[in-house]
Amino acid sequence: MRRFFLRCSLAAVAAAALSTAVINAAEINPDVDQFFKDYIAAFAAGDAEKLAGLWTTDAAWTNTNSGERSTGRDAVQADFAAFFAENPGARLTGDVQHAKQLAEGVMCIEGTAAVAVPGQPPAPSIFSAVLVQQDGKWLLADVRESAPPAAESPAERLKSLEPLIGNWQDEGGDVQVNTSFRWAADGAFLVRTYEVTRDDATLRGTQVIGWDPRENRLRSWNFVSDGSFGQGHWSQSGDEWVGQLSQTLVDGGAASATQVIRWVDDDTLEVETVGRQVDGEPQPSTPPVRMVRVEGAATDAASDAGQQTTTDAAAAAGGEQ
Fold this sequence. Notes:
With about 325 residues, this protein is an alpha+beta fold. The protein has helices at about 1-10, 10-15, 30-45, 50, 75-85, 155, 300-305, 310-320, and strands at about 55-65, 70, 90-105, 105-115, 125-135, 135-145, 165-170, 175-185, 190-200, 200-210, 215-225, 230-235, 240-250, 255-265, 270-280, 280, 285-295.
C-alpha cells in the first residue's frame, strides 16, 4: 500500500510547480491553482482526511505499469493515513508540463513528480490527472501514474552506429583516404581515425562521437595532425545523418560546412559536403564521395591512432568531416 501512496499523492501535488511550469496562464482557472495549494498544504500537514476530501467519492487511481487500481475516496483516505503514519516528514515535489481544459468544469493535467521520504531516495513518477468541478470545488476524478522511462545509456544511444565499426576506403579521386571506426570507453563513444594522403603528404586525424544529454543529440569532436580541431552536431533523417560542422584551422581561421552521410548499402556510404565556408567566404561544394568497407585495409598509422573518414580531409580544408 505504501507504493500506492507514493503514487496516488503525486498526481495532484505535482502541480506544486505550477507557477514555474511552461503553461499558458489563461488555461489555468484560478480556482484550480488554489486546489493545488490546498492539496500541498494538506500533504505537508499529513492530513489524510483533508487530502481525501480533494478526491471525488468515486475517484480512480491506476498504475499503468503494473495495472494496480484503487477506487473511492474512503480507500484514498485509509491509504493516506497509513502512509503518513509510516513516513512522517514525507515531502512532494513536481512540475506540471501540460494543462488543458477538456470541457466546462473538466481539466486534464500532465507532469512529473517525486515523493521524498527521510532517509530514502526520491521516488519519481509521471502522471496524467483529470480534475472535475463539483459544487463549485475542483476535485481529482482520475489519476494515471507510471514510473518514468529508464534513461538510455550513452552506449545505447550510439547503438545505431554499430554498422560503422571496421575499416573503410574512399573510392576514386586523387586523394587516398583510409578510415577506421572502433568503440571506446565501453561503447560510450565511437572513435573514428583516418589518414588522408595527397601528393605524398599525409594528414591524420581522430574524431570522437558521443551523445550529448544536455542537447539531446549526437556530437562529434575532431582533431587533425596539423593542429586544427573542430566539432559537429548531428541529426538523423531516415537513412541520412546530417552534421553541422565547424573547424578552427591551423592559421587561426574558421571553417564550417554541412555534411550529409547516406547509407547506399551495408558496405557503402556516400558522403557529401555542402555549404562550405572559410572565414565567412563561400567555398565550392565537394562532389559526393563513396566510402566502401574493406578488410584490413586501414593503414597501420590509422589503426594505431584511431581515425576518422573522408570527411575529415574536408574538415581540415573547410569544416570538420
